[in-house]
Amino acid sequence: MPLQTLEPQRLYRQIAEQLRQLMASGEFAVGSRLPAERDLALQLGVSRPSVREALIALEVEGMIEVRTGSGIYVQSTKSQNRQHSAPASDAPTEWGPLEVMSARIIVESEVAALAAQNAQKKDLQAIRKALQKMKLEAARDEVPRWGDEAFHEGIAQACGNSVLLDTVQRYWQARNSPLFERLGDYFEHPASWQAAITEHQTVLDAIEARDSAGARRAMQKHIKQAYKRYSASWRRAPAR
Q: Is the pLDDT of residue 144 over 60?
């Protein structure tokens, strides 16, 4: 059964489904190594980040095992953790992590620009408090997850548009998905947290200065850098 070129619609799920079928049919037996991420992307006619999301989904389901420095191996031809009933197609927890980040680059950059124009004193206090929470979490060698969410939600609250606030909150609902969490296991680490904290500080400085264009640039740069961090080489992740 040859691999088929895919259309770009909820791409990571289509890729994962093709690979599930290939494993179930015996094309990729238990214990065998899958083609490299780069080769899968070429054969499927898709980007490497889309393949990466699909592989993370299959790992969450218990079908494959990622062995850093060795490759990706078939662990089971049947999903161990897949939900029996598919969520609604627009459910945030089904959004691909890297697709979410691409959307955030566009939306949250403008949210930051509006926040620089509209933020009230209480909004600035909330954003500062969130950044401080990130620093404290990182200092305790914890993933600064809650401070990060509070920071971005605080900026959305400050922008003065309830639709944009709701949109940003939905992005963070997606962040709670098993796919996003596992992606973080591979690509988040103390150095990346410190880089993110520095980037957040630049965003806050621009908002406090009422520099709308600067806030837009700083937020855009931050999320683009975060995307790059998630697209880096695989590293060893904790076992689950």
A: yes
